[in-house]
Structure formats: C-alpha cells, structure tokens
Amino acid sequence: MGRIGPGELILLLLIALVIFGPSKLPEIGKSMGSAINEFKSQMNKATKDDKDELKEKNI
C-alpha cells in the first residue's frame, strides 16, 4: 500500500467526471483542496502545541 500512481489517478478522475459531470469538477476540486489545506493546518498546529507542551514539562 502506498501512494496513488498516475494510472489510478486518471481512473479516479474519469469516474468523477462520469458521476459529477464536467461542470461540477472544478468546484469539487476547489472544495477538496480547501479541506486538505485545513486538515494540514490543523495537524501542524496540533503538532506544534504538543511539542510546546513537552518542552514546558521538560523544563
């Protein structure tokens, strides 16, 4: 199990095109990008908070 390869990505995009149609794909892509960015931001914040808390306890 690993990353998605180019073949799988093309297949997923074709399935999305059939299901949602070409007019909805940009909107869906933008929403997915925003959700991924928000998730990464929250994960980075949680990691920083955890590191800060550990640093305080070790002092």
TrEMBL record:
Gene3D superfamilies: 1.20.5.3310. It is found in: Cell membrane. Keywords: Cell membrane, Membrane, Protein transport, Translocation, Transmembrane, Transmembrane helix, Transport. It is a single-pass membrane protein. GO terms for biological process: protein transport by the Tat complex. Its main location: membrane. It comes from the Bacteria. One of its GO terms (cellular component) is TAT protein transport complex. One of its GO terms (molecular function) is protein transmembrane transporter activity. Part of the twin-arginine translocation (Tat) system that transports large folded proteins containing a characteristic twin-arginine motif in their signal peptide across membranes. TatA could form the protein-conducting channel of the Tat system. Forms a complex with TatC. Belongs to the TatA/E family. PANTHER family: SEC-INDEPENDENT PROTEIN TRANSLOCASE PROTEIN TATA. This is Sec-independent protein translocase protein TatA. The lineage of its organism: Bacteria, Bacillati, Bacillota, Tissierellia, Sedimentibacter.
